[in-house]
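Exercise 7. Given the components listed, write out the predicted structure of the assembled complex. Treat all entries as one system.
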Amino acid sequence: MDKFTTLTGVAAPMPLVNIDTDMIIPKQFLKTIQRSGLGKNLFDEMRFTQDGAEIPSFVLNQPAYRRAQILVAGENFGCGSSREHAPWALLDFGIRCVISTSFADIFFNNCFKNGILPVVLPQEAVDHLMDDARKGENARIAVDLQAQTVTAADGTVFAFEVDAFKKHCLLNGLDDIGLTMEKASAIDSYEAKNATLRPWA
Amino acid sequence: MTAPRTLYDKIWDDHVVHTSEDGTCLLYIDRHLVHEVTSPQAFEGLRMTGRRVRAPEKTIAVPDHNVPTTLDRANAATMTEDSRIQVEALDRNAKDFGINYYPVSDVRQGIVHIVGPEQGWTLPGMTVVCGDSHTATHGAFGALAHGIGTSEVEHVLATQTLIQKKSKNMKVEITGSLRPGVTAKDITLSVIGATGTAGGTGHVIEYCGQAIRELSMEGRMTVCNMAIEGGARAGLIAPDEKTFAYCMGRPHAPKGAKWEAALAYWKTLFTDEGAHFDKVITIKGEDIAPVVTWGTSPEDVLPITGTVPAASDFTGGKVEAAQRSLDYMGLTPGMKLTDIRIDTVFIGSCTNGRIEDLRAAAAILKGKKIKDGLRAMVVPGSGLVRAQAEEEGLAQIFIDAGMEWRLAGCSMCLAMNPDQLAPGERCAATSNRNFEGRQGRGGRTHLMSPAMAAAAAITGHLTDVREMMGISA
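Answer.
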């Protein structure tokens, strides 16, 4: 997994609430057995017609946002299916950070496993950053994970909360399976104890 | 004396392997369910790092999302190449890593969330995970069950644990009894309608109250199944005599002395008097009507006696979302929900593909025909549900009514197999999501109970099933 430290870039505005993972990556693209290559189908049914032509009004098809690295989105982003193909598609497109007032649980966790930072901020802050996002290249947003801040184009700084362990893993690009395997003896003793306490399990 | 604990607190406490200074826990996983769509990259990860599956005996795999449900599916040509590759990858991974497996050819094959309980893998007090958001279903047994991403699937395969922070406790109480014609699906949709799709975010919901107690295990699974649509990490229902009776004698349920020991433990799995809930919602059972969804979010729920809302009825970001939904669904504000004509009926899914669901639909359809020109399919949740429905004569009722009687799978709930809606096609569905494109690009989904879907199949439009049952609304 790639590290996430700081990121300054153009943010794409997607104010729609309840953007679900079916929208982010429709089911026909889940038939892959790889993690890569999904960026071209990110938001496929909103981005392309059935014939594959670009829908010009869709934000990521507009010249200013074709290389956006940040999304500013409406509440409850990433709801629905647990498909990790959603963060894989975002990452493959080049999105490294999503800012919203709230995220669905599973999507939120999946982001951290893939070097994407989901940032939760209050409505006023998201509104401010949404205005920046609407200005495209003229209003870049800066994200600093170490400092836990998002800086708007006018210099306004918004602090955000992030789980300490998740932050540590993301800053260092750590594989958490490796970290858990270091605790193998704790798992061994749990299993031994459990075999007596709950043998049916 | 220890402080009073919720059911969630108790299951959590019994599964903590390790707690870090910052409160991050390593939680032990008792059962790991696996399907073909969200697992190939996880098994590939194990191969690349030379890791093995730590507890193959606790890992259960079944293909369900991609598999065709037509009777000729043994013919490989019924699957697209990419679907076939995914199913074959699961065949191979199950064999290579030595995990429990129900292949497409096995009569026990079906939707992973129906197979798990049916085979007795899911038991009270367990932690159950699967790379699928509807894992919440298993909460009906008083098991802590939730969906995970593929990276976490790999984590569980390798370590039989998950890195977790504890969620908050939320109580959803349904008091009193349901009125006739109202079902578990109406409960779960009504709760989402009341709390919104983010209402449960960061919480584990415990459903309780008389109306929940009065539900069968099948009904309880329907309720917990859609906890995820309410944003919750998991849904739980405390186990009781109905739960124990359901589990007893299942192939993988404990037997003899182990059963007795398990039963003694299971009887401790309830929320203590005075335990703290961070959020409490109470709904009167008698206030719940048969409901349908009108929009493209599961929170867009209205009683069938209602009318299509206008975008201006909403506030904030929901105004734009509601307008988008109305446009997508092709609906005009103010029209009666019962005037919405449908093209297709889908009865099935992990929400409503169990025997009780098929009985409820068959009770409405018995001796009737579906509306001329309508397409209707009934997809049982597992091969065993299918066999039982045939034995009980339900299958014949569906066939006589003019419906297609299919083999088990996820089918048109998410349309990864050939069962899909065409653009603009409108479907009365017993599944769980009405998202844009969910059942096929441009397809329009109205969620409802099996009885309501059966009623719609007969009339060709959304219908209050109570009228067919001779009950006044």
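Discussion: The first strand of chain A starts at residue 6 and ends at 9. Chain A has one domain: 6-174.
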